[in-house]
Design goal:
Number of strands: 5
CATH class: Mainly Beta
Order of helices and strands: HEEEEEH
Structural class: mainly beta
Shape: extended
Number of helices: 2
Strand order of the largest sheet: 4-3-2-1-5
CATH topology: SH3 type barrels
Number of domains: 1
CATH architecture: Roll
Strand content: 25-35%
């Protein structure tokens, strides 16, 4: 009986509006900050270096360089403090955790960007433009 109640409580607090992001993606994490009686949203931009856990306990770590110092923040994915996550750039990585970025500085921290195909890019009117630019057969009589 109590496991049913727990599973209902967990299902109610899971977020469904988060985008699909992976290790190596550059993201903007909007965090709600409470200062006294005021509440504001602060954006933390960086590279996702790890994801851990499942379900309600899932967390992700974002790393960025500020004034020459590396700063990492770990966010609970389903926390009400996380207002939203926006993916800026997707990168191609070959590891599950990018802890090796901690030892690197400067250009050595740049990850190779994933190439997107035309089917992944949503361009309005792209189908019509492709039809208009298709070569047409012209016959000339001499």
């Amino acid at each position: 009986m109590s496991t049913e109640l727990m599973s209902k409580a967990v299902a109610a607090s899971l977020k469904t509006d988060l985008p699909d992001f992976e290790i190596g993606d550059t993201v903007n994490v909007s965090v709600r900050i409470i200062e006294g009686e005021k509440e504001r949203v602060q954006v933390f931009t960086g590279i996702v270096i790890s994801r851990k856990g499942t379900g309600i306990h899932e967390t992700f770590t974002v790393r960025r360089i500020i004034a020459g110092e590396g700063v990492e923040r770990t966010f609970p994915l389903n926390s009400p403090r996380v207002a939203g996550v926006e993916v800026i750039r997707k990168s191609h990585v070959r590891r599950a955790k990018l802890y090796f970025l901690r030892k690197r500085i400067g250009k050595a921290t740049v990850l190779r960007e994933k190439r997107r195909t035309l089917t992944q890019v949503q361009v309005p009117g792209a189908e019509q433009a492709a039809v208009d630019q298709a070569p047409t057969e012209q016959t000339t009589e001499a």
